[in-house]
Amino acid sequence: MSTPHREVPHVPFVPTPEKVVLKMLEVAKVGPEDIVYDLGCGDGRIIIAAVKNFGAKKAVGVDLSDERLKEAEQNAIQNGVRDKIELRKNNFLDENVSDATVVTLFLLTNANELLKPKFEKELKPGTRVVSHEFEMKGWKPKEVIKVEDGNMHHLVYLYVIGEHQ
């Protein structure tokens, strides 16, 4: 049994724009063999798009907020994909992500820092980690993509486990 981590860093809920969601999943080359985890899933938009638009086998959303998880469930039902997603109320530092083939993040730099050793331990080589806006300091991204959304510019970082040193 794993020991619980210290308090999870507070990450405010800021929805990822739809255009960025699609680019994140496209860059990760999500397809029918993938199991996508979104840590801090908010309203579920990334996991829903992963199964609905990219045909992922399964998607798992992890969040601490009952309100966000309820919203994600309602959104999944409305999009007809409730049977392909799992919603878990958990501290993302304590969530076992070892079966993930893709992990998506829109957290903060300090949260990403805390996740790096966990990812290096749990994720298999070749697993794609996609972060919106915040890099994984010390890891070398395979790709950095700029996404224009109206007047906003967003950055999407793609890392591949085993290729980020």
From TrEMBL:
**Molecular functions per Gene Ontology:** protein-lysine N-methyltransferase activity
Q: Which GO terms describe its biological process?
A: methylation
Going by the entry's taxonomy, the superkingdom of the source organism is recorded as Archaea
* Keyword entries, A-Z: Methyltransferase, S-adenosyl-L-methionine, Transferase
Cited SUPFAM superfamilies:
S-adenosyl-L-methionine-dependent methyltransferases
This protein is called what?
50S ribosomal protein L11 methyltransferase
Which species is this UniProt entry from? Metallosphaera sedula (strain ATCC 51363 / DSM 5348 / JCM 9185 / NBRC 15509 / TH2)
